Amino acid sequence: MSAGVQLSRRRFLQVLAGTAGALVIGIPLAEAADPPLPPALLGDDYRGLGAYVRIDSDGNVLIGTRDPDTGTGTSTALPRIIADELDADWNRVGVIPLGLGVDNRNGQPFWRYGHQTGGLGDSIPAAWADLRQAGALARWLLTQAAARRLGVPAERLRCQAGTVIAPDGRRFGYGDLAEAASKIALPTAPLPLKSPDRYTLIGQPAGDVDARALVTGQSRYAIDSDFAGALVAVLAHCPWHDGSLGTIDTADALAVKGVVKVVQLRPEANRLPGQTVRAPAVAVLAENTWAALQGRARLKLRWQPGASGSAGSAALEQQATDLLDDKNATGQLVRSDGDVDSAGKKAARRVEATYFQPWLAHATPEPMNCLVRLDKDRATLVVPTQAPQQAWAVVQRLTGLAPDQIEIQVPRVGGGYGRRLDHDYVAEAVMLAKAVDKPVRLLWTRQEDLAQDFYRPASVQRLNAVVDRKRNLIAWTQRVASASALAGRGVPDDRLWASELQADQLPAGLVPNYRSSWYRLDSPIPRGPHRGMPHLANAFAAESFVDEIAHALKENPLDTRLRLLGEPRQIPLANGGTLDTGRLANVLRLVAERIEWKNWLRSVNGLGIACWHVNGAYVAHAVEAALQGEKLGIVRAVCAVDVGRVINPLGLEGQVAGATLDALSAALNLAVTFKDGQVQQHGYKDYPLAGMAQLPRAVEVIVVPGDRVPAGASFLAMPTAAPALANAVFRASAVRVRRLPLMKELLRLL
């Protein structure tokens, strides 16, 4: 993307006059497009544009946000990118979710807004090269309209806070110019974008646009939505995804007042995980939630296990350990630099450790749900999804409707963490709506949510390091045994490691002789994408291991890391980016200074530190932990991040603090276990998210200012929190925790 607005791009911007003299900037729709969502952006004119910006005659600005907001702040950050380029008055800007933008191009879907995925850390990077166009075009049109009215060349005018100002002080509000601007022909040449020194919103802190609604309980989630006449559906899933229904008796369930129908669901054959029903299920549909739940409780079901009926997490971990113990076992080579075997001959010291990661569930605050209405020639859904385009694919396959006959609304999402990249629950809702020929409001219980997840797979990681006589780390070997989260999802066998390892993860590129390998485990347990994967598991192992190397060398762990990073330089990465060792060292030094690392040996409490890099962004944590008897307290947690240019510092701080607390909670308490193929955790009582007493009173966030292209941050602060905590626990207790969850292991070792 050049510095101008590329009007010749495939999804070029256009303009129309909305109702009441409004100016609307957006993407051209198909000839016979149905009303795009939300119609508020277009007033009564439902044909023409899928809008990004609407400026009314009263000067109010409405901006649509295209990516689902799963708590990552996209509903604030993305509109501010447009608003800054527009020179809008933020106090007069309203924000509304766009929902899925899809048109019909000869029977094929045409994605109106391009990128529409939330929670993966790529919303802002994608927007930076995209959304400024809408604001720039609107500002140009308004300036042209003012120039004609004032009789002044447009280049002599300036825009500020929703007004166009002439050199002599005369000014017009955007509302006064909106109608005239909507009638001006589009420019034929690229428009220049604002230079950074003219930014007024980008880089300035702003509260979440939904903050008041969130804290007062007024936010509307998909689970709060309803259609007139919709039946409530609750499910009894088979405990085994590959099991079957042996016997069923529905008489007592159907006798419950309000219960309308009982429907059986089965996974479709030859469909990838997340695209169809996850496991056989029996649905009870009723006039209200209470009746549906009572009906489900009275179902008489006998399920039969499939091949997964003998699966257990303990046996799989033992298999992984045996595999790594077997010197003849061959893993899949992920990266190989130098000659690790030859470097071993120069060893003055060798360090080895094995780290264990548990299975994890997503446990989203908002359980899986979906509201669907199927009409003869239209499907309307309200879905908490991270990927509405993938949800569309499921609906289209099940209904056969044309691309633009499927409407998907995406309100604010109550947490995603990767779970809502799969759409088994959408398939369930659509199948049920077809079965009863009525709108359906599908609701999962918390127990179903934990028992019917696509889990993050457990892993066993064995690391070996070689240090020479000059105390230099000259060789590093990392071997990971796990069941790939990508298995069965259409990924070639030689790429299944991609969910378990990254070729460029630390300390790759910093150690002259480096080798990483993945050892495949086969498991019938359903697996899928998870927040921070694969960084979360690997940073815990790698950054804990660096600390062990420092301890073996009897040196300051911060010094060990800085020596490993060396002089500031750019190291090419396999994915095409670079590792900037100077930026990584900087965030390390910042957290060390804030937590007073100079006292790491003399501190009464334990201090721990860790660093990582993710897609051009850099993060470090320093944690202070206190141990009194068997009670662990996290006294302080400091996190520094460098994401390049920051759109909303306040939003970034919130993301960093939230991700830190999420990672600490997972590290302290969380693990999913399986016995006879069944999940042993049924609710928050046995899958306990950390409470306030276990977590630090605050997360101290340091944001590094920068002028580089923005990088994502939705899970950036997750990988380093757990190793920094474990390293701090070692300083406080002399106990090295190599197995998560930390509290259970720590109490075992004390």
Summarize the structure.
The chain is of the alpha+beta class and 750 residues long. It folds into 3 domains: 14-206, Aldehyde Oxidoreductase, domain 4; 222-306 and 368-443, 2-Layer Sandwich (Aldehyde Oxidoreductase, domain 4); 313-360 and 455-749, Aldehyde Oxidoreductase, domain 4.
Walkthrough of the structure:
There is one protein chain. The protein is α+β, with helices and mostly antiparallel strands. 26% of the residues lie in helices and 25% in strands. The chain has 3 domains: 14-206, Aldehyde oxidase/xanthine dehydrogenase, molybdopterin binding domain (Aldehyde Oxidoreductase, domain 4, 2-Layer Sandwich), CATH 3.30.365.10; 222-306 and 368-443, Aldehyde Oxidoreductase, domain 4, CATH 3.30.365.10; 313-360 and 455-749, Aldehyde oxidase/xanthine dehydrogenase, molybdopterin binding domain (Aldehyde Oxidoreductase, domain 4, 2-Layer Sandwich), CATH 3.30.365. It contains 18 helices and 32 strands. A hairpin with a 2-residue loop joins strand 18 (369-375) and strand 19. Helix 10 (388-399) packs parallel to helix 11 (424-436) and helix 13 packs across helix 14. The termini are far apart.
